[in-house]
Design brief:
The complex is a heterodimer. By secondary structure, chain A is mostly helical. Chain A is 74% helix and 0% strand. Chain B starts with a helix and ends in a 5-residue tail after the last helix. Chain B is flat and about 105 Å long. In chain B, helix 5 (114-145) packs across helix 14 (302-312) and helix 10 packs across helix 16. Chain B is mostly helical. Classes of the chains: A mainly alpha, B mainly alpha. At the A-B interface, helix 2, helix 3, helix 4, helix 7 and helix 8 of A face helix 1, helix 3, helix 5, helix 6 and helix 7 of B.
Chain lengths: 308, 397
């Protein structure tokens, strides 16, 4: 009996599941479930497996920290070290000598920020129109957006490259930014979110109060869209930040971070401790983002799955 | 596209406009006396400048809002893809520009080029080596996370850590680990007296190595998608199955897996579109190779082959043909996925309906004979029965 009470109290602290928490009579219900083996606290096996998965996910990163902070001679030994060495800053200095790291970091920040603002802005605007405004051809155009979701635009690099070269834009950040100013996914995502979130009455009320269309959008649409905008922004930023093929093509001399990072190992002889120090340095910005917004990333992925 | 879909929408819009017109100036729409006509004219004139602006605002705003997307997407997304096709019909050099018109000559040449087929083989091999283990791993991780574990958010976040490491960084890390002479993995193999593997020169090991990078980065991400789908399964179904005596494994295979199938198909399709365009990993896997994708093109994927053709061999015509061939293959894979999944779904639902009917009949028969064997008393037995009925009718109570 006491054991049951104990388990109950722990269940109170962390409501096991949204559905169970919402159920009118949670206590007897969850008791029954536990008796059936549903929603029971899992045993050590589960946590053991989770730890294995965790180590599998983190070890490669840890290894690059270890290798990036050791002299390369250590790495070639049969039993590689498990703990970081003391050479990190030496390796960092080497990285800074080999590639324009700070320039690349700045470039990546500029490129990713502009792309994020543009994608989120235009997607919210178009998604709001598709979700809440009535106009001729709305359905057809939305079908078109959905159809283009799966179009691999990456395969259009040849004409894009020709155009960039023609206009003399290669080597400038504009060449990196322009091809990804909008995404079909963004419009689809915002439309899916906004269609449920804004009640028609709210828009009508704003209109009756004399707000014009853009004011209505700004004061009704944007506040409602904010959570989805944050998630879309997060993922757009990540995608822009990780892009490699196109920046490698148009700005090899004025690199983004990924391009600069890849140039660390372009030499005939590859010093892996320097390469991995660079990999660690380049990962830090996104790790910071992850610490700040990891929860939003998780919920964004999970929300996208249910909706899309 | 637009013109095809316009007619129904257009009639719709016209109707709406008509109704609006008659609403705003009721008298004008009635045929008859000049009085009324004059009234109508007055009414029209009475529309102030502000009202006119407002009406224009209502009509034009939606198009203004969607215009940036369509214009930009057309310019940087669709036009390049279409123009790639034009380029592919010509002899076209990176430096000298367009040459003579060759029709489908570039396509014929590519379809007869062993390098093209080699790249396609590599792409599909790497894709399968990454998609299948990734899907299985993601389902398992999701199933573990779907339990009532402590510190849920922590564990969910922890499986996402690899996702924040960029593909370039992932490739650099794994490329060092798979180094043939001094790499971490060969060192470990040798320390347990196994012979080292030529990860960067032999075809199959190289594919495994490249696939492992993709798997490492994406398994956790996909696990979270599948986890969301698992959580959307109504708990009542689990409950009633457990009442029927189904264990955790049985419930996993009979309830969880079938219910997350739509999401699995979504994951597979995204993995296909991404996997067939893999570039970064094979490009950076072996920096000492002069040819992108390995000294003997052991892991030259199709996008890498496209890259090599366009920017190293400077043959834009052939490279564009490759791009379009790959485009067609991606579309075919997508359609195939869709058809297979729909077929499975329809047969499955038919079988499911039959099975449920049979079970319900059996349940009723035993319920008539009393609640012997259920062990939970009257209440739970009826509740379980009800839940089963509810589940079979796909109505959430």
């Amino acid at each position: 009996m006491t054991a049951t009470v104990d388990r109950d109290s722990s269940a109170e602290q962390r409501p096991p599941r949204a559905t169970a928490a919402k159920a009118p009579g949670p206590k007897p219900r969850s008791n029954k479930r536990r008796a059936l083996g549903i929603d029971r606290r899992p045993g050590f096996l589960t946590y053991g497996l989770l730890i294995v998965v965790f180590i599998g996910g983190v070890y490669p990163l840890w290894w690059s920290v270890v290798a990036g902070s050791s002299p390369s001679s250590v790495l070639t030994s049969t039993y590689p070290p498990l703990l970081p060495g003391g050479q990190f800053w030496t390796n960092v200095a080497q990285v800074l000598d080999t590639v324009p790291f700070w320039l690349a970091l700045g470039n990546s920040l500029i490129v990713s920020s502009i792309i994020t603002i543009s994608v989120v802005g235009f997607s919210t605007l178009a998604g709001y129109a598709f979700a809440k405004l009535k106009f001729r051809g709305r359905e057809g155009l939305m079908v078109f957006v959905i159809a283009t979701l799966a179009v691999p635009t990456q395969l259009g690099i040849i004409p894009l490259f020709m155009v960039m070269k023609q206009f003399g834009w290669t080597g400038t950040l504009g060449a990196v930014i322009i091809p990804t100013l909008v995404t079909a996914f963004g419009v689809f995502f915002m439309r899916q979110y906004l269609v449920d979130v804004i009640p028609e009455e709210l828009i009508e009320a704003a209109r009756v109060d004399g707000a014009n269309m853009i004011r209505t959008f700004w004061h009704v649409g944007v506040p409602a869209a904010r959570p989805a905008m944050a998630i879309l922004g997060l993922f757009t930023f990540m995608t822009a930040w990780t892009d490699y093929l196109w920046p490698l093509l148009v700005v090899p001399q004025n690199p983004t971070l990924q391009v600069a990072l890849s140039q660390l190992q372009s030499a005939k002889y590859v010093d892996y401790s320097i390469v991995l120090a660079g990999a660690v340095m380049a990962t830090i910005p996104l790790l910071i983002l992850f610490v700040l917004a990891g929860k939003q990333l998780v919920s964004g992925i999970m929300a996208g799955a249910v909706k899309g | 596209m637009t013109s095809v879909t316009t007619p129904p929408a257009a009639t719709d819009g016209t109707n709406r406009r008509d109704s609006k017109t008659s609403g705003s100036k009721t008298s004008g729409s009635q045929p008859g006396g000049s009085d009324r006509r004059r009234q109508a004219r007055d009414a029209r004139r009475a529309l102030t400048f502000g009202q006119k602006v407002s009406r224009f605002d209502v009509k034009a705003s939606p198009y203004l809002y969607i215009a940036p997307f369509f214009i930009l997407f057309g310019l940087v997304g669709l036009f390049p893809l279409v123009y790639t096709f034009v380029v592919s019909l010509n002899k076209w050099n990176l430096l000298t520009g367009p040459g003579e018109w060759v029709g489908f000559g570039n396509y014929v040449a590519e379809l007869n080029d062993p390098f093209f087929w080699n790249s396609l083989f590599n792409t599909i091999s790497i894709f399968l080596l990454s998609a299948i283990p990734q899907l299985i791993g993601a389902v398992l991780i999701a199933a573990i996370l779907d339990q009532n574990i402590r510190a849920k958010t922590f564990w969910r976040m922890s499986v996402l850590i690899p996702y924040v490491v960029t593909p370039v960084a992932v490739t650099l890390i794994f490329s060092s680990a798979f180094d043939e002479k001094y790499g971490l993995i060969n060192n470990l193999l040798q320390s347990v007296h196994l012979s080292p593997i030529n990860w960067k020169t032999e075809t199959f090991p190289a594919h495994v190595a490249i696939a492992s990078m993709v798997n490492w980065r994406w398994t956790g991400y996909n696990a979270l998608i599948l986890l969301a789908a698992m959580q959307a399964v109504p708990r009542d179904i689990h409950e009633s199955a457990a009442l029927d005596g189904a264990g955790a494994f049985r419930r996993f295979f009979s309830i969880t897996l079938p219910s997350i199938r739509p999401t699995m198909i979504f994951v597979i399709i995204t993995a296909t579109i991404g996997g067939l365009q893999i570039f970064t990993e094979p490009k950076l896997f072996n920096p000492s190779s002069a040819v992108p994708g390995g000294p003997q093109r052991q892991y030259q994927t199709t996008v890498l082959y496209l890259w090599d053709m366009a920017f190293n061999r400077q043959n834009f015509g052939k490279a564009s043909a490759i791009a379009w061939l790959l485009f067609i293959i991606i579309v075919l894979f997508g359609v195939l996925n869709f058809l297979i999944s729909r077929r499975i779904a329809s047969t499955e639902s038919r079988m499911h309906a039959k099975r449920t009917k049979r079970r319900l009949a059996a349940q009723r028969a035993t319920a008539g004979a009393g609640d012997a064997g259920s062990g939970y008393g009257d209440d739970s037995a009826t509740e379980g029965d009800l839940a089963l009925v509810a589940a079979s009718e796909e109505k959430r109570s």
